[in-house]
C-alpha cells in the first residue's frame, strides 16, 4: 500500500514539475510583430468575421473597418465555388445570407446570389444587420483579402476542407508569402491532419476534439508528457447571448437540456483554465476566447490568462483594451 501511495505522490510531483517547466515546447508563431502578445504585454485584438455587429460579416467593408481600427487579427471562414474560387463565407449554405437553400459550391463565383436586405446574426437571439449600408455587398475572394491586408494576422477556418479546397487555400497563402501571418484550421481532427500534411509550416488552431483532449490530459496530470499537435487554442466562452441563441435554435426539450448542461460545463472549464493557459503559454501555444462582445465578458477572459479575445464588436474591444492598457498598438 505504501508503494502505491509513494508512486502516486511521485507521479504528481513529476507531473507538477513538468507542468510548470514544460519540456515539450513549440513555436510556430515566427512573426516577430506578435512577440509582445506571447510575452503577455498586450491582448490580441481579433475581429470575428471582421466585426459582424458593426458591419455586414465577412465583407471587405467589415475587414477594412476592423483594419482601420487597428485590429491585430481578422477572423474569417473559407469555402470554394463551383469554378474553384476560394470565397470568404461562414456558412457553406447560402440560406442565412442570401435566402437561397443551396451551397456555395453549386455556383460559379460571378453567379452567386445577392444578400438579403437583413441578415440574421449568429450568437445573438433575434438580432439582424441591414445590408443596405454595405458598400461591398458581395462575398469577397480570399485572394483579394490577402492582397488588401498584407500586414495583419488572419485566422481562417476552412468550412469545406476537402483536399482540393485545402490545396487551393495553401497555394494562395504561398503565393502571397503569408505562411507566418496565417492561422488555419477545420472542424475535426482528421481535417486538421490534412492541413498539416499539405503545409506543416502554417500554425493550426485546435479542433473541438483537440480542446477536449487537452482538458482531459490536464485534469489527469498527463498533459506535460504528451505532445500537442496544434498551435493555437480557440476556446469558446459561453456568453449569455450565445447561450440564449442556442436555446432559441434548439428544437426539442432534450436539446435545450443539452445546452444547459453544456453551458455549465463550459463555465466550469473557465474556472479551472488559468493554470492550463499558463502551461500552454510556456509551451508556445496561443490561447484566445470567442466570441465576446462586452466589458464583462472581456474581463472574464482576461482573468484566465488568455492571449487574445475574438469579438463581433471591434470598436468596443479596442476601447476596453486601451482603458486597461492592454492594447498592442499604443
TrEMBL record:
It comes from the Eukaryota. It is found in: Membrane. Residues 43-321 form the GP-PDE domain. CDD domains: GDPD_GDE4 (cd08612). GO terms for molecular function: phosphoric diester hydrolase activity. It holds the Pfam family GDPD. One of its GO terms (cellular component) is membrane. The chain crosses the membrane at residues 6-23. The keyword Lipid metabolism applies. Keywords: Hydrolase, Lipid metabolism, Membrane, Transmembrane, Transmembrane helix. InterPro entries: GDPD-Related, GP_PDE_dom. One of its GO terms (biological process) is glycerophospholipid catabolic process. Belongs to the glycerophosphoryl diester phosphodiesterase family. This is GP-PDE domain-containing protein.
